[in-house]
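Notes to self after the Tuesday call (sharing in case useful).
The group wants a holo model before anyone commits to mutagenesis around the pocket. I volunteered. Ligand is NAI. Logging inputs and output together so the record is complete.
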Amino acid sequence: MSALDRNAKIAVIGAGAMGAGIAQVAAQAGHSVLLLDNRPGAAAQAIDGIDRQLGKRVEKGKLAADERGEIVARLHAVEAIETLADCTLIIEAIVENLEVKRALFKQLESLCRADCILASNTSSLSITSIAAGLQRPERLLGLHFFNPAPVMPLVEIVSGLASDPALAQTLFDTAKAWGKQPVHTRSTPGFIVNRVARPFYAESLRLLQEGAADCATLDALMREAGGFAMGAFELTDLIGHDVNYAVTCSVFDAYYGDSRFQPSLIQKELVDAGRFGRKSGRGFYDYSEGAQRPQPQQISSDASFDSCVVEGDLGVLNDLLPRLKTSVIKRDGKGLLRVGDAVLALSDGRMASQRAKEDGLRNLILIDLAFDYASAKRIAISCSAGISADAREQGIALLQSARLQVSLLSDTPGLAVLRTVAMLANEAADTVLHDVASAADIDLAMRAGVNYPQGPLAWAERIGLAQISQVLDHLQASYGEERYRPSLLLRRKVAEGSTFHDQP
Ligand code: NAI
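Result:
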């Protein structure tokens, strides 16, 4: 372990949302912390705010009153940058502007000890370019906390081209000693989380744009089938569309316009209209007083059926079978579930009508992915064109017998949860391929940084990498777009019959 000693003095520059949170984390870990902001009084105000937050924890019995006093006593508001001269680690959390950050670090280098570690909390700027021009670029790294820093466990330890690997390890061990879950990553646009998470927003935005379903239905599917804490529309309303759209644009530009990161015109419209989400009172949803939250769309059926037939292996969909309130007859076949006139199957990324035609199936109902079919509350389906009313009703009734709310989407390739998870896994695979981070760290980052129910690579492995690759192939064929091309590493894993977690 090379974690910094508790006696090491830490400085945080920028006493806004992130700086104050980071200062609190370091003080809670026992360090003396100097907090500096160029707005007079801002650092002292931030410490008052931390004191109030800790006070609430004392009231709830989660923190001892004397501990609160000790933490606050370790926080010192300072006004002059020269007072940081003897700090061991200086963490910058000022305005997101490359020139302003560069100028600050140049100034720090001229007044601090030669062995001081410089860290930036930037979420979108290159650590390599912030460090360029410094006398000791090897001593500058990214230390990327998530908001709110005292609560969110993830910290990305970002190495630029010149960063010293030993210092990356020191920051990793220090973050761990502070009770965080650090991961190593190379300085590339979006690092891990802000890159791998892009399809979570992008696929829902696409589905909305194409009229597959409305916001409330897609959000409910992500929560109640996908196991995510929030759907993309309620989450971006919370983050703020100005912020979320700016991150998407910056990642898109940084990857030279790769269509995988293409921003959405629907979101741009919201930004243009000043509908930033909760903070402006309106985004995808209306937050004004008395506004009614739209309800997710669902369909029901009172059709009756005697039994259902399972042909072959349904893969992850097998977990649904114990919930069906009917007898299940098993036969050989190609992974189909039959009830009455209806044929049900897990989506493979093709549209229902296309699959019905290509595979010679009539009355086809495609079922979306659920994180856990044994406990999901809702599921999306789509139907092939010309499906008989009886077959549709029987298929819906079968799913309802498992106490699932059924939401009908238009005939869309990959439905909602499946295509989102396939694209998350695909981005994660490319992130491994480009040596930005390890598969294990990417999965950990997506759980600890944005609360995904499972890391996208482990999730894809559970479904089957061959299935995920096939879903992407079908999406690419349907849309004719590069955006859905499977990662070379995903294809390689499928060809090898290996997994991401086989790696040493
Ligand atoms: P903020 O606007 O809440 O706070 C920035 C603070 O820095 C302000 O108090 C401002 O007065 C001060 N400041 C600006 N220029 C300064 C300078 N030259 N010297 C000293 N103080 C200066 O911003 P926030 O949200 O705390 O973000 C700070 C950094 O953290 C940015 O780089 C941002 O990209 C990054 N970040 C933000 C996250 C978020 O969710 N807000 C998450 C992770 C990283």
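Two things stood out.
The chain has a mean pLDDT of 97.
The pocket of NAI is lined by residues 13-19, 37-39, 42, 93-96, 100, 104, 121-123, 145, 147 (CB under 6 Å).
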